[in-house]
Hints:
heterodimer; A: alpha/beta; 4-stranded antiparallel beta sheet; 8 helices; B: alpha+beta
Amino acid sequence: MSVSFKIKKTVSNILEVQQLYREFKSGSKILTVVDDINFSIQEGISCAIVGPSGSGKTTLLGLCAGLDRPTSGTVSLNGIPLNPLSEDERAKVRNEHVGFVFQTFQLVPTLTALENVMVPLELRGDATKEVRERAQELLESVGLGDRTHHYPTQLSGGEQQRVAIARAFINQPKILFADEPTGNLDTETGEYIEDLIFDLNEKQGTTLVLVTHDLELAKKCNRIIKLKNGQVSEDNFTELEPETAAEKSL
Amino acid sequence: MSNNKSGFWTFKMAWRDSRSNRSKLFLFMAAIIVGVAAQVAITSFRANLNSSIESQAKELLGADLEVERNAPFQPELQEVLDSLGGDVTTGLEFNSMAFFPTSGTTRLSQITALEGEFPYYGELITEPSSAGAVYQQNGSALVDEPIMRLFGVEPGDSVKIGQLTYKIEGAIIEIPGQPVAASFFGPRIFIPKENVEETGLLQRGSRLEYVSLHKFPEGTDMAAVEDRLDKLRENNIRFGFDTVREREEEVGEAIMYLSNFLNLIGFIALLLGGIGVASSIFVYIRQKINTVAVLRCVGVSSNQALSIYLIQATAMGLLGSILGALLGSAVQLYLPVLVQDFLPVDIDLYISWASIFIGIGTGVVISVLFALFPLLAVRKISPLFSLRTIDINLNELLDNTTKVILGTSLAVFITGYAWLMLGEFLPALYFTLGLATCLILLTGFAKLIMIGSRKFLRAGFSYEWRQGLANLYRPNNQTTTLLLTFGLGVTMISSLYLTQDMLLDQIDFGDQRDLPNLALYDIQNDQNEGVNEIITSNGHDILQNVPIVTMRLQEINGMTTEEVDDDTTRNARGWALNREYRSTYRDSLLPTETLETGEWIGSVESRDELVPVSVEEDLLEDLDAAIGDTLTWDVQGIPIDTYIANSRTVKWDQPSPNFFVVFPAGVLENAPQFFATTINTTSREASLSLQQNIVQSFPNVSAIDVGQVLETVRAFIDKITFVIQFIGLFSIITGLIVLAGSAATSRFQRIREAVLLRTLGASKKQVIKIQVIEYVLLGIMASITGLILSLGASTLIGQFYFDITFVPNFYIIGIEIIILTALVLIIGLLNTRGVHNRPPLEVLRAEAA
Lengths: 250, 849
C-alpha cells in the first residue's frame, strides 16, 4: 500500500481537534459522549485528559488516535486530516506517527516480548536484523533485557507494561497516546512506569497525550484538559507561558 | 511496505500467532482429516474398481459373446451363430431342487448344464483345482462351496438333480464375472449338458434359459457381430445377447451408482468437517479479537489481519487434508474386504493419485470456504476494541451481502461436487437443497430452544437448574453450533438406520401365522393331486393351490406388439410387451388384491366371446392401455381374445404367488398348465422334511423355503447396510470430533466460569451439576431434533423411493436419544476436566498460557 500525505512542514500543532462530536445510539435515545470539543496540542508537550468516569475521556482519545470516527467535526494528526482516510490509511498513519500504551497492556499473547516490540517496524518491512537490535535496545532501556523471549503470560503486569512502552516507542512516534497507563499497576510499579514514559518522551521529543484518573500523574504534564459530560470544562497550561497557552487554546 | 515484504511479514505473523494455539486447533484439523479420509478412501476405491473392471473386462462375461433365450434358438438365430465361427459352449440354465443324499438335505439351486470349454477368459476356480476341467468328461457335478460346507458334503459325495444322481467332482470357489453374492439366492451347480434331458426337468412350464457362449479369433470385428444380431432382432427374432463391451458398461454403471451413493455419504462427512471448521474458527477468532485490534492499532491493514488468519486456516486445512488423504489411502485397503462379495471382479489395489489430489483439493476448499464466514469478520474488527472490552458478535460484523455471496459460493461448490459425483444435475441440486433445508431447520430449532428455555426458566428453580438452563441462551452459548453439527450428523446416521429398519420390517413376517412359509412351484398338472396328498398327509394346511398358464401378448387393440413397440406415439414398455406372462384364473379377488377401476367378473361361460381379464395397475400403465382395450394372447399356440375389464393393485411383498393378469374361471381350465402351492408348516423342521418328501417323489417340483429366503434377504441387506454404515461411521466420527472441537474451543470460557463459581463458594458438586444439566439438555435437544429430521427424511425416502409407508420404531429412537445424549454429556464433562481439584488461580494461569 502506498499512500502519500501532504504534511504541512510549518505546523507546530501535532494534534488539532475541531467541533468534535461523537454520538451513540442506545435504543431510541441518542447519547452524546463527546460534545463539541475543540483544542490543539503543540508538538513536544505532554497533555493529560482527566475527568470522572463516563466523561468521554477514552472516547476522545480513540477519536484523536483515529481508532474511531467522529459523528461530526475534524481531527488532524501531524497535519493529516483523518476524516477522509480509509481504515487502512489510518492504520498507516498510526504505524508511522503514533504510539500507544493501554491500561490493559494489550500485548499479543502469542508473541514473545521481543516480537511484540518489533511488530510496528516489521510492518513497515524494515530490515529484521536492525529491527531486532533496536527492539533489544529498547527492552534493555526499560530494564527487560533478560526477558526478551518471554511470552506475556510469563511476565508480571509491570513488565508487560514496560514491553508495551518499548513497543510504543520503537517507531519513534510523533505522538504517544496512553490510556490509564498505570491504572492496572500497584503504586510503586506505577510510578516506575510513569517515569519511564516521561523519560522516553523527553528523550525522543514525542508529544504525550494521556488519559488518567490520577491527578498526581496529570500534574506531571504540561497541560491538563478536564472533561465533564463530554465537554471541556477546564484547560490549564502548567509550564507554558500564559500568552502562548492562550494562543494555543482555541 | 512493498507487497513482497508485506506478504512475508503476514506469513511470519501467521506462523508466530499460531504457535501457542496449534494444539487447540488440532480438533478442527481432525474433522477435516476424517472427512477427507472418507472421500479419498471411496474415490480411490472407485478408481481401483474401474481399472479392475477394465483390465478384467473379458472375464466379466467369460466369453466374447453370450446369447440367451427362454426357448430353443430359432433356426435363423442358430444359422447366424453357426456362421460366426470360433469356439462355442452351449448350455441350459434353470432352477431345480438339489438333493444331497449324504446329509439328506434339499435346496433350490441354480443349475447350469454346459457343453464346451467355458469360461474362455478367466478361470473357473474349483477345489480340487482339476475338477473344473474334468466334470464334463466324467459326467459329474460342481457344487457351490458354501452349500457344501453348510451341508457337510465332500467331493466324491453325490447330488441328485431331478431323476439323475451326479457324483460331486469338486466345489465351485469362483466363477468369472459372478460375484460371490450371486450364490445368496440359491447355490450354483454345474453339470454336463450331455444327458441333462434324463433329469426329467426340461418339461413344459419349467423356466429354462438356453445359452450359447462364444469365443472368437483375435481381431474379430465385434461391431459387425452386434450388427448382425441386432438385425435379427429387428426382424422380430426374440433373444438376448451380451458382449464384453455391453457387460463392462452394465457393471460399470451399477458400480458407479453404488460408489456415487457412498461418495455422497462420505461428502457429508466432509461437509460436517466444514461446519466444524467454521465453528472452531469462529470461537478461535473470538479469542483473537483483542490481538487483531492491537495489531490494527499499530498499523496492520484489514487485509493483512484477514490474511494472517486465512493463512492459518488454509495451512491447517491443507495439513488436515494431507493427513486425511494418507488415512483414506489406508482405509481404502479395507474397503474391498467389505464389498468383495458383491463385485464381479477381483480388485487390484494401487494408490490413486488423482483421488488423493481431488481429496486434498476438496478438503482445502471446504476448509477455506467454511472458515471465511468467521474470518471475513476479522476485516471489520475495529482498533477501538483495544481501548474498550466490547462484547461483539462476529456474525453481526459481516454484512448481509457478504453472507449471501459466501452462502451462494458454498451452495455452488456443494452442488458442483455432488454433480460431479452423481453425474446428474437435478439430484445434485436436491442434495444441496435438502442439506440447506436441514441446516435452516436446525438453526430454527436452535433459536426455538433458546427462546423456549428463556421462557421456561422460573425463579423457583434451584440455582443449578437456573444456571444450566440459562447457559443455553446466554451470550456465546453453544446451542446453535451443537445443534448444527451434532444435529446434522444424527439426522444422517439415523436416516440410514431407520431406512434399513424400514426395509427389514417389510420382509419380517415372523409373527404372521396365516402367511405361507413354504411355496412349491413347477407342479405339473398330473402331479398336483399327488403333491397335495403328501402335504395333507403330513398334516399341513394348503393355503393356495394356484394354476399357472404361460402365455405371450400378441395384439393390443388389433395392433401386434411389434407395431405397438414401433409406434412412437405410444408409451408401452418393452418388457410388458415381450415378456412371457404366467397368468392364473379364478373367480374372486385375493385379500392381498384391491380392485382399482372397472368391474370384477369372476367367471364366463365360454371363450367364444371376448374374455374379461383383470390387469395389475402398474402393468396397465406400462402397456399404455386402458379399461375396455382388447388384448389378444398367444396361449401356447392358441389365440385368446380378451378385454381389460378392471385393474387391480397387488401387494407384491406377500410371499404368495401374485399375478399381473388374472383370467376369469371358465376359459383356461383345459390349457396346458402347472401349479404353485403355498403351505403353512408348523415348524422349520416340518418344512424341511416335507420338502424332502416331495422332492423324492416329484424331483421336478421346486420348493421355496420362505423363511430361508427371508433370512438370505436379511443377510444380504445386512451386508449392504454394513457397507453404508461403515462409510456413515466417518460422519459419526466427524460429528464427534466437531462436537469435541466446539466444546474444546469454549474451554477457556467454561473454565473461567467454573473458577468464578468456585471463587464465589460453589461446591465442586454444584459446578458439575450445572454442566450436567446444560449438556444433558443440549444432548437431548440435539438428538431429538436430529431424529425428528431423520424421521421426516425416512418418511420421504419410504414414500418416494421404496413406496412404503414408514412407521417409526420408537424403541430404536429411544435408545438413540439415550446414547447420543450420553455422548454429548461425556464430551462436555471431559471439556472441563481438571478444573475441580485445583486452586482457581492456578487453573486460570495455566489456561491463559
